[in-house]
Amino acid sequence: MTVPAAGAADREVPDVFDPRGYADGLPHAAYRLLRDRYPVAWQEEHEVLGWPAGPGFWAVTRHEDVVRVLKDARTFSSHLGATQIRDPDPADLPFIRRMMLNQDPPDHGRLRRSVSRAFTPRQVDRFGSVVRERARGLLTAAVATARAGNGVCDLVTAVTDDFALLNLADLLGVPAVERGLLLDWTRRVIGYQDPDESGPSASGPDGRPANPRSPAMLQDMFGFARELAAHKRRYPDDDVMTVLASDPELATPELEMFFFLLTIAGNDTVRSAAPGGLLALARHPDAYRRLRAGAVRAATAVEELLRWHPPVLSFRRTVAHDTEMAGRSLRAGDKVVVFHGSANFDERVFTAPHRLDLARSANPHVSFGDGPHVCLGAHLARLQLRVLYEETCRLLPALAVAGPPRRLVSNFIHGLKSLPLRLVDVPPGE
């Protein structure tokens, strides 16, 4: 792997690796400096939060370069080193490569087609009606809670966490009594850098924190996936796990990895994007009024809110053969990390990117990725977000931030742990 010599200019390069740097939101000043002066910049992968140091990587921050990395799988491989910034244990890499996300074309095409068959038009139509009822019910309960108290409600704990979780459970066909497991697994895997989310850390044989994506740490999830698949073969239903369990082309390890991918990505994409969009609307009351008045289509607004608050902060690729980008020589084996939040605010692509424009028509954001690994469930995520914002507009005349949001400590997921909003005005003395 390339380790460039540190010159005077390189010492000015801001650190966008440290997960703690995202606790206050997207680091726009750092992103802007990188885009303008160091669009492909070397980042030290220092030890942080108990996790060991790594070899370093190239941070890619301009929209054009991010799209190139995501589209060019021959040069920038998902297979060689998987897709997380931290290098996996070499012993775990064959296991991690079973997941479609960590494969290159054409190998991942068969698995992608298999799971695509699970999302039938009938299922999507049924899913849409259930999602609307759920959004309406959760928001109505949140308003009642706010009215019974001081007018404030935490939308993450009262609405968006359950909204994402219960929608996913319906889609997969997970029994109601088991649904809490999905959130526990998501917190363990996605929130591993945040002590509030990860819980007590397990240690590996070397005393370091155990990788939550390692085979040893996922056995309970995989055991559940096998049991659920066996149940669906005996008692088929109109859900994704029934389709996957009955697919003769899917080996058991592949089915387990599908369950892992759908559980984690399917839950956390909406779980992160939904409160981020609501926070943006609360901070831009004029935009919210226009949305409520019908001056902007909800589907168009969803795209701008996704651009503004991308649920995924970064993805990693590994250089397959020597290449060049933005004047930098990248060598085979180098790690390359694309930063979605930076690309989404690139002035070279987006006019006035720091203006929330719900009617923005040319909006090529990369919040769901691009290229062969573009998010498989993007249409379902968009459906859920559109419905949630529509029901919010219908039930809540105004949104106001009632306290600082608490954000996930992570350089991977752009999550919110708490979002206190004032939903109703409570007269003094009540």
Shape: globular
* Helix content estimate: 40-55%
In what range is the share of β-strand residues?
Answer: 5-15%
Kindly, what is the distance between the CA atoms of the first and last residues, rounded to a whole number of angstroms?
Answer: 65 Å
- Outline the biggest β-sheet: 5 strands, mixed
Structural class determined from secondary elements: alpha+beta
CA radius of gyration: 22 Å
Oligomeric state of the chains? Answer: single chain
Low-confidence segments: none
Order of helices and strands: HEEHEHHHEHHHHHHHHEEEEHHEEEE
Query: How confident overall, as mean pLDDT?
Result: 90
Output the strand order for the largest sheet: 1-2-8-5-3
3D structure, described in words:
The chain is α+β, with helices and mostly antiparallel strands and 430 residues long. Helix content is 44%, strand content 9%. The protein has helices at 28-37, 63-71, 93-96, 107-116, 121-148, 155-172, 179-190, 195-198, 219-234, 240-245, 252-283, 285-292, 298-308, 340-343, 378-395, and strands at residues 40-43, 57-60, 76-77, 152-154, 314-319, 323-325, 328-330, 335-339, 400-401, 406-407, 416-418, 420-422. A five-stranded mixed sheet has the order 1-2-8-5-3. A hairpin with an 8-residue loop joins β10 (406-407) and β11. The longest helix has 32 residues, at 252-283. The radius of gyration is 22 Å and the shape is globular.
